Amino acid sequence: EKTTVLITGCSSGIGLGLAVRLAADAARRFKVFATMRDLAKGEQLLERLGGRCPDTLELLQLDVTDPRSLAAAVRCMRGRHPDVLVCNAGVGLMAPLEMCSEQAMRAVFEVNVFGTARTIQAFLPAMKRHRAGRILVSSSVGGLQGLPFNAVYCASKFALEGLCESLAIVLRPFNIHMTLVECGPVHTAFMDNAWRADPDGRELRALDAETQQLYRRYLQHCTQLFLDAAQEVDEVLQVFLEAIAAPRPPLRCITARLPAPLARLRPGGPDGADYVRAMHDFVFGPGEAAEEQP
Ligand code: NAD
After folding, report:
1. Atom of ligand 1 at shortest distance to CA of 189?
2. What CATH number belongs to 3-256?
3. Which of 7, 32, 250, 257 has the smallest count of CB within 10 Å of its CB?
């Protein structure tokens, strides 16, 4: 009997890569339900599998922000339930907070937090009845520590961490293992697909000069960080594959090599000020923080 895997956000990046890897498994151990908002984008997946849809793959339409689409996906599985549920769909938002519109903030939470919660809700009853399974969730290093100009994105991934950590406790007696995969920068179209807070740059020009300058420096830092340190999708997939295969996968897997000045500053340390200082200095260099007012 094949292991049934359902993955959200398979039109690109990590979801696409994972669907291809599992569907192309030489021993054909997996039946992959690769889901995406727009099925027309399934072409890339099929191309990567040599232009055909093998019996190890089924494409399903699934928009995690739409409960009807979720209900339809459940029906399309015709009584099968996922042994492995991979909640991977996610969207970024990088901008000074003043520039993040109500609509942008809500859209990010709608996908990253509520989208994941409702995907799990849809499949959990069947997984619980089966008393076995795994839930893998694409989180982020930004779900463990705050990142400059990623306030809303990090807030959504922190929320995701809390959601899943809480669930993991209750799922233990059901033999369902929860694993959060925290990636750092990965070579995908994630940045291009991120929500555009300010497409024409007008709002940025309306901000105070100092924030504009910090933001520009941050964007340069990001570009450099991606050049120097971004991981390939395959490296990240290895972590997902291990979490699928391990008898007792861990709750958290950080795929990324954290930059040296930040690596030892684990979240939850006694003094968050150390982290804020270290991250500031890492991105903007030392000695830039405003003097404290007496
Ligand atoms: P990506 O943009 O290629 O993939 C995200 C996928 O989610 C896309 O296929 C997109 O269509 C899909 N998606 C967005 N909204 C959706 C919705 N409403 N319903 C269904 N699918 C939807 O980028 P990626 O790097 O492959 O991102 C995958 C996950 O990894 C995301 O959750 C992201 O937050 C996380 N992550 C990525 C990075 C990175 O640097 N690439 C770093 C940390 C975490």
Report:
1. 3
2. 3.40.50.720
3. 257
